[in-house]
Amino acid sequence: MSLLPSISPPVRDIPPAIDVPPIRDVGVDSPDVPPVRVCPTLPAPPPDADPWASTGLATVGVPTTRMVASGAHRDLYLSGPSGVAEIAVRLDWGGSVVFFGQQGSPASNTIDANDTGRELQVALYDPQRQFQRCARDASCAGTNPCGNSITYLGWDPVQGGDECNHGARVLRSGLEGDRMVVEVRPTQWNPDWDAPDCRRSACPPAAVEAGVTYTLGFRFVHSNVVEVSMEITSQESISHLPTEQEFPTLYVGHGGPSTDLPLLLDSAGTPITVNNPANDGFVYANFRSAGPWVTWQHRARDYGVGLSMDHAGQDFQAWEGSGTGAPYFHNVRPRQSFGIAAGATVRGRSYLTLGSFDTVRSLMDMVTRRRAPFGALDAPSAASTARALGGRFRVAGWALDNAALSSVLVRVDGVMATTLARTAARADVCAIYPNYPGCPRPGFDGEVTLPVRDGCTHAVEVIARDADGNETVLGRRLVADG
Known about the structure:
Strand order of the largest sheet: 7-8-10-11-22-18-17-14
Distance between the termini: 89 Å
Number of strands: 30
CATH architecture of the largest domain: Distorted Sandwich
CATH class of the largest domain: Mainly Beta
Radius of gyration: 33 Å
CATH topology of the largest domain: Beta-galactosidase, Chain A, domain 5
Helix content: under 10%
Number of domains: 2
Mean pLDDT: 92
Shape: globular
Structural class: mainly beta
């Protein structure tokens, strides 16, 4: 056997070593990789509530109604809690209030219900159409061209009915949620209101209806306190200039079957003298109450009814009749001026309180202190998630209260971000809600910066808070950083 030489494996070139950095485990805290931000999932905010219907003092008790026949009339009663008080509207007199008193006691009624012109009700005027003869062409100015009598009033939609005692027509009535509601087509007080001369025709067979609608809601916010919400909606093609309106007027009891309430007191307990001569033998007085309410009482101040407005106005006008030169009656109304544009809406609230002067004073103070602001958030829009470009976004809207509000608050993710001043003019808002403090500049409009720039979506709340600590969320929105 031959011996073969051993064969070694071929030699291959080996490239030079490469300097490779050591391999490390990379965690979330590594300085070389930014931490991953996980944005929270936020629920969609609730829809914005109606600033009018959804705010106010809480309803007390379970609302119950009953229909009562009073002679030829039909009266719808709303009973308050604890069997204390009740309020009634007369459906054949335009849903005007004909009873506010103690449950089961007709003699305790504080309301004058003697004809279609004297209850608690709404009535409107137009300074250009205030009197017959000039109302038809809007040329009224100054004195009544037909004589100093309410017989010749011009454009004057009255909730109860007309001077012929035709009652205004109720379009709907009943319990709706926590309110007793009546919707009314008011009538012109004077059926000849638009006549070209000073005629005084015989009463027509039916009332002359006006082209507006009144919607009133009643609910108990205390066993002795009823909130009366009022909404005027125009269906007319003409606008009516601002003037003092009866929104509402309170005609109080003058004896049999009601109680007699001859003493008018302001909120300090000061008697008001009513002695300025007016039309048809009546007398009147313009006065300013120490606080935002007044009350008609027995001489002993032990029982009566108080009236206040939600906007906390302190100016009032009272009227009286002696019973000799004019029918015996007493009324009082807040002095407030506003107009009604064609197709427009006007809203207001008043409060009726039952009891002695001391009781009325205590409860009116409670109402004023507990009334929260109301308003609306216009921007960001509720339609979609807003985007904060450069971390900034616009917030705009309006807020009103029975006291002046200096600013509104903006919270982002539950943390205070900024305040925005209420200085923006909002003629549209003040036309709907006239005479509130803060008008004509109840609006806010400003830029808000996100506290954190993180690319996430944030929950934003805009809040109105008043000096009494009452707080209302005007709106909630989602705003994305980006």
